[in-house]
Amino acid sequence: MSWLRALRETARSGLTVERRRLAPAIAARGALGLALVVGFSLAVFGPAVAASSAFGAFQAAIATFQRSWRPRPTLALASGGSLAVSTFLGYLTGAHLLLFLALLLLWTFLSGLAWAAGPTAGIIASSNVAIMLVTVTLPTSVATAAGHAVMIFAGGLVQAALVVLLPVRPWGAQRDALADALAAEADYARRLRHDPVAPFDPVPLMTARSAAAVTPRQARRRPAELHGPRRLAERIRPVLASLADPAVGAPAEGPQRDRVRELLAAAGTVLDAAAHAIRHGKPVRLPPAAVSVLRTPDTGTILADRPHRAALRLIALLGDVVETAEPRTETSPGEARTAEEAGEDAGAGAGAGAAADARARAAHPSLAARTRPTLLRLAPVVLAKMRAEVRPGSPILRHAIRVSAVAAAGYLLGLALPFGHGYWAPMASVMVMRPDFSQTYARSVARFGGTLVGVALASGVVQTAHPGTYLSAALAVLCAFGMYLLMRTGYAVSQVCVAAYVVFLLGMEGSGVTQTVRERVLLTLLGGLLAMLSYAVYPAWETPRLRGRLADWLAASGRYAAAVAARYADPAGPGSPDVREALLAARAARVAWHDALGLAGHEPVRHRGLSHAAAEGAGHALAEFGRAAMLLEAHLPERGAPPLPAAAGLAEALRETTERGAKAVRERTVPVWDDLRETVAAWDTEVTDPLLRKAPRLLLDALDELSAALSDA
After folding, report:
1. Which of 243, 497, 519, 627 is deepest in the core (most CB within 10 A)?
2. CA 145 to chain centre
3. Closest Cα partner for 426 from 406, 443, 440?
4. 271 plus 355 within the same structural domain
C-alpha cells in the first residue's frame, strides 16, 4: 500500500462514527461522580482545586469503561491513585526544566512499556501522563500540590464508591462474553448445515476464557450460571464439526445428512436460548420444535457408528449447557422447575458431560477454575512483562522510545513557541500514539478534527453566554457525560466532547478562552504531526514479521495435532490437559497471525516476501489443518481404552515435521513434508478405523496446501 493510500485509509477510519449500543446509565453514573467532586471542591476549596480534582474523577470514570475483567472500582482507584502520584511528582520537578524533562521522559517511557501488560494498562498510563502535563500547572506550592494530589485521588475514590453503590448490570461484561461464545457456537452450527467444513473463529471462546478468570473477591460473588457453560461450549465445537463433516461423519446427501442438518439447527436454537438466558440472567426457554428434534428416538435408527455417537454426545452436552445456564441462585421455585424440565428435554444423558468435567478437574488440578491475581500480586507480573519487552526488535520498546522522545520534543517546542500553554502539544502526542501505525495515524487525524469542532463549539458558547464559575462547571460535566456516552462510537466524536470539557473546566478557574482556543488547536495539530512523523522515522512494521507469525501458528498447530494423536497411543479421556494447553497455544498463535495480518494491511510498505494472496492461502491451509486435528479430538478415546501404538509415531512425525516446516517458513523457503507423508502411508496400512485413516490424510493435505501457497509468495 502506498503512503498516500495509507494516509487516506487511516484518516477515514479515524473519522468514522460507529453505531454502537449506548450505555446511558453508566455514562450518567460517571457524570454524577464528576459533578459531586467538582461541586464539593468548588464550594470548599475554589476553582483551581476543583479543576484538578475534576481531572481525577474524569480519568477514573474513563478507566471504568476500559475492556477489562477486573472489578470497576479497582480500575477507578488505580487510575486515581496513579494520576495523583504523577501530578505530585510532576509539580515537585516542574520548576526545574531539566528535572521535569527527565521525569517526563521516564514517565512516558514507562507508559509506553505498560502496553506489554495489555491495552487497559497502556491507555490508563498514557492518559495519566497526558493529564499530568495539565494538572502540574495548577498548584502554587508543594503543600498545595499535595492537596491537589489528594483531591485527584478523592475523585477516583468517589467514582469507585459510585460503582459499588449504584451498580449497573453487575457482571455484565462477563455475561456478554459468555453469551457471545455460545452465540458464536450457535451460528457455527447453523453454518455447518449448508457448509459442512465451515470455518470457526475462536476469538469469542478466547474472550470468554479470559472473562472467566476472577479475583478471589469476585469468585465469592460470581453468579452460578457463569461457572460452567464456557467449558461445555469448548467441548461442543469439535462435536459439531465431526457430526457435520462428510469425511468422518454422515454422507454428504441422504437421510443421514438430513437428520444431521436437523440436529445442527436444533443445536443452534438451544445454544441461542442459553446465550439469551445468560446475557439477561433469566431462565432458559427452549422452543418445543428444537426439543422434539433432540428427543426423537429416530436418530438411533437413521445415524450409525460415529455420527450416532457424536449426536448422542451433542445432545448430552446441550443438556448440560441448559442446566448450567440457569440462574439457579436467583430463580423462583416455579422457574427452577421449568429449568429442570428444560434440562431434561434437552435429551437423555444430560449431566454426563458435567460429571466428566468434574472427574477431569479432580484428576488434573490445572483444569480447576481460573483465578486472576489482585493488583498487588499483579505488579511483579507486569514488571516482568515490561522487562521482557526491553529487547532489540520489540515493537513495544520502539513505541516507548517514540512516545518519550515525542513528548519531550513537543514540550520543548510548546515552550519555545509564542502561544502559551505549551503542554497541549505533548499531551496530544501521548494520547494518540499507539504501538501500531494505523491507530496512531487514525487517532491523530481524529483528535485534530474533534479538537477543532469541540473548541469552536465551546468558544462560541463562552463568547455568547459568558458563563460564570458554576455554569462553566455544569457545562464541563455535561460535556463529560457526552464523552462517556459516545466514547465507544468513535474517537473523533469523543474528542469533540473532551475538547469542550477542557475549555469549560479551565475557564472555570480563570483561564479565558482567548488563552486556550487558538493555541490549543495549533498545538494539538503540532502534537499530532509529531506523532505521525515519529512513526514514519522510527516505525515498527508488522509486515516484515508476518512470516514469523505464520511460522509460530504452524508450529503451535503441529504441537496441538501431535498432542491429540498422542492421546490415541495413551488414552487419557476427553479432559486431557496437555491437549487443552496445546489447543490454547494454537489459538493464541492464530489470533496473533490474524491481528498482524490486519495491521499489515494498512501499512505503507511492500509485502517483503509474503504477498496478500500467499498470506490468504497459507491462513486457509492452517485453518484446515486445525480443523482436521479438531476432528480427531472430537473422538478421543476414554481413559482406559485400548491404546493405538501407531499413534505415537504419528504424533512424533507431526511434531518434528511442523517444527522443521516452521523453520523453513522463517527462512523464506517452501517446506516439504516427505517424512510425514511416509508416516501417513504406513498409517493407512496399520489402521482400519475410517475416521483414524482419514484424519491424518486431511492433515497432510492441509500442509500441502500451505506449501503451494508459499511457493507463490
Report:
1. 243
2. 37
3. 406
4. yes
